[in-house]
Amino acid sequence: MKHQPLFLLALSFFLSCSSFSQIAIIPKPNDIKITEGTCSLKKSVNFKVIRGDEATKSIQKQIADFLSQRNIAVSTTAATTLSINLLQNKTGDTIIADAYTLSITTNNIAITSRTNAGLFYGFQSLYQLINTDTLNVVHCLEIKDQPLLSFRGFELDVCQHFFKTDVIKKYIDAISKLKLNQFTWKLADEQAWHISTKNAAKLFDTDSTENEFYTQDEIKQVVQYAKERFINVIPEINFAKVIQSEDTSFQFKKNILDEVFALFPSKYFNVDEPLFVTDEIAAYIKSTGRKIISKDAATSKGDVVLSFKNTSVGINAARNGNEVIMAPHNLCSLDNYQDWDDSKLSKSMLYLPLDKVYKFNAVAKSKQHIIGSQANINTKFIATETKLSQQVYPRIFALAETFWTSKNNRKSFKDFSVRLEKIGYPGQITEKINLVKFK
């Protein structure tokens, strides 16, 4: 009998750990408290919008569509209420834009935020909770969450291999569920130009085999599709082909930029290699109110530096006062191979398994001037959608968590693995996460 208190303590700890392991959310919330009881949505739910605007209606529709897919009816007489509330901003508020609260009691689910983006992220957490339970029953809990980084990006290169807009939209959907908010679309490099513009013909020889383009309507549709999921689309243009074109006038370059800017309202413009950006071009880009993102070096102090070579480049740029996006090739490039059995197709290709990805910490040295991080994928050796999926998943889940969840709140890789297995991902066929094989 004298060992009973110790036994009860151990049992309580086991039950709490067991309960938490059932809370499968990626990225892991920064503040989550499990409370007693469960909330059932088996029969129906009374869905309410307490306060919102036009953008809130899009979130409302997405939640309603999800409930319908789960065969959860919406009824005004339901015992359980699911509410979303866009809080009114007050003078002196210090809550960051993407923060949200998700509260679940035995008969009420409430998502609140001061922004629609926050409401959307709260819904993604609820979506994962409901989607991983076949009985439509969720644990009671309270989540007060906000991201570690404001810029949480995914870059897809379509220059090496072209992917149609349905594939682009599929990845925008996927990263939005992981609370990423920036999609960098690499559309032009030394060899390819994939934007249909009036001036594009001058960039190619008549015998060029690079004739795949996104129409302007397709681009507008992608930008709008992303906007509805609170993702900003950033065009990435390597100016080598523009600089080397037969028309060397600044007016020609300005005309191309104007067409691109009309398609992409983003405040960011990624020029890839600063080497190919003249002072005249840089000045014109900045005159439109846009911020230049360039790889590993800045054209001026006002530029955002994408730290690709290693983290030291970003740390030095931050010390010089530049805003920085941490995207080191050895930890954030998903074109690296993830299994020892995979072929090493180039000298630059490194071994990057899932557990190593999960160790990434963008703000290990200092958070000052580091605005975010970005996953990158070069498609030189990725010619098919299947191969693209193999490279992106499941590592994008790990990176998304490192972008959102502070290092102190990431319990362990094992904890992440348990949640990942429960949530599931494309190509998942084994419980041994780090040895995933795609067939």
What's the arrangement of strands in the largest beta sheet?
A: 10-9-8-15-14-13-12-11
Structural class: alpha/beta
Q: Tally the helices: what do you get?
A: 14
CATH architecture of the largest domain: Alpha-Beta Barrel
Q: Averaging pLDDT over every residue, what do you get?
A: 89
Count the beta strands. Answer: 15
CATH superfamily heading of the largest domain: Glycosidases
> What's the number of domains?
2
Strand percentage lies at 15-25%
Shape: globular
Question: Can you walk me through this structure?
Answer:
- It is a single chain.
- The protein has 2 domains: 25-145, Chitobiase/beta-hexosaminidase domain 2-like (Chitobiase, domain 2, 2-Layer Sandwich), CATH 3.30.379; 151-435, TIM Barrel.
- It is an alpha/beta fold and 439 residues long.
- It contains 14 helices and 15 strands.
- Helix 2 (54-69) packs parallel to helix 3 (116-131) and helix 7 (250-263) runs parallel beside helix 8 (279-287).
- Mean pLDDT is 89; it is low at 8-20 and 434-439.
- The protein is globular and about 70 Å long.
- It has helices spanning 4-21, 54-69, 116-131, 165-177, 216-227, 240-243, 250-263, 279-287, 311-319, 329-332, 354-358, 385-392, 395-404, 413-423; strands at residues 32-40, 44-51, 73-74, 81-86, 100-105, 108-113, 137-145, 151-157, 182-188, 232-237, 268-272, 291-295, 304-307, 323-326, 370-377.
